[in-house]
Write a structure and sequence with these properties.
Rossmann fold, single chain, 15 strands, about 350 residues, nine-stranded mixed sheet, about 25% strand
Length: about 350
């Protein structure tokens, strides 16, 4: 391909490094610039680690790219087509606004923004822009979750009766995660994946009832939520739990259980990944999943949509924005021990 999409990545933490690995496998793109405020990440003498096998495996060593200590300088580079924003959540809006003002395509890591107000402003900017903007809600592209979404939509096992999601790990540590004002605690940084997937599958809930407690971030770091839908429509019973308060050495796991009229799906990613289908009168069936992580398919989709000339996926952006509103309602529910309606 003669003219590759030229990418600049801002932020070389675990997600920025993971994105760097993925771009190196896509022939239609070339990473020509990277930025991080930590010099050792730029020169390769230090490297962020991921919490899932396959994350952040490569690095910057041997990478031929312009290196910036200031992400805003990277955005000013006229040769860059795509800005991939992997900075702290509290900085998402600032960098998205700057990149769009320079006519760049933008991929912004989850969550879309630190607050719902900022998320709404990003939607407005995207609607006014001629470039492509994507919110990196990777779970929507994870093979096991793609399978679940299709099962719900197609009624492959009958009506979905209940959904339960769980995501648990030890505290990730570091200055960013230790300040809930920056990261939003596990409530916004970790649990947001499952809240977004609920919103993606079933639409905006009418209300939430949540319980939780504060942890090492100073904010809500363990959450359990019930998502309330109109029961007259016989919507499924939906709940999720997220935590990064597990003791050191616990590791990371994510799982779901989906109960249908004619089957039960059980998924677990811990050291290994398994998805099983249980049906009355049959032996448990192991489901073979497409190989790869959601990050790969998310970025591939992003690149393909730019190259095909499609407009921004405003449904995804709108839902990612709504997800932040749901998270804020969950926080209020925890603080007031009450059912809280979702207002957007």
């Amino acid at each position: 391909m003669a003219n590759k999409l030229k990418v600049g990545i801002i932020g070389l933490g675990s997600m920025g490094s993971t994105h760097l690995d993925i771009y190196s496998k896509i022939k239609e793109v070339e990473v020509i610039a990277i930025a991080d405020s930590i010099q050792s990440r730029l020169d390769g003498s230090s490297k962020a680690e991921g919490n899932i096998s396959g994350q952040a495996e490569g690095g910057v060593t041997g990478l031929s790219a312009i290196k910036y200590l200031d992400g805003m300088e990277l955005i000013e580079n006229p040769d860059i087509d795509v800005v991939d924003i992997c900075v702290g959540t509290d900085l998402h809006f600032t960098f998205v606004e700057a990149a769009l003002s320079k006519g760049k395509h933008v991929l912004v890591e989850k969550p879309l923004a630190r607050t719902y107000d900022e998320a709404k402003q990003i939607i407005q900017l995207a609607e006014q822009s001629s470039t492509y903007v994507m919110s990196a809600m990777c779970l929507r592209y994870w093979p096991a979750w793609v399978f679940l979404k299709e099962a719900i939509d197609s009624n492959a096992y009958g009506k979905c009766l209940s959904l339960n999601f769980k995501r648990q790990t030890s505290f990730p540590g570091g200055a960013f995660y230790s300040d809930h004002n920056q990261c939003g605690g596990a409530l916004l940084d970790l649990h947001v994946h499952d809240t977004d997937f609920v919103n993606y599958c079933l639409g905006l809930p009418e209300a939430v009832f949540s319980q939780g407690y504060k942890g090492p971030s100073g904010g809500i770091d363990h959450i359990a939520t019930h998502y309330i839908y109109n029961q007259s429509d016989l919507s499924p019973l939906v709940s999720s739990e997220g935590s990064w308060t597990m003791q050191e050495g616990y590791g990371f796991n994510m799982s779901y259980t989906a109960n249908f009229e004619n089957g039960t799906l059980s998924y677990l990613l811990e050291q290994d990944e398994t998805l099983k289908l249980f049906r009355s009168g049959s032996e448990p069936e192991s489901i073979n999943l497409k190989e790869g992580m959601g990050y790969e398919f998310e970025i591939r989709t992003f690149v393909d949509e730019i190259l095909s000339g499609n407009s921004t996926n405003h449904d995804l952006l709108r839902q990612a924005s709504e997800t932040v509103a749901i998270i804020e309602a969950e926080k209020t529910s925890i603080e007031t021990c009450s059912l809280v309606s979702i207002k957007i």
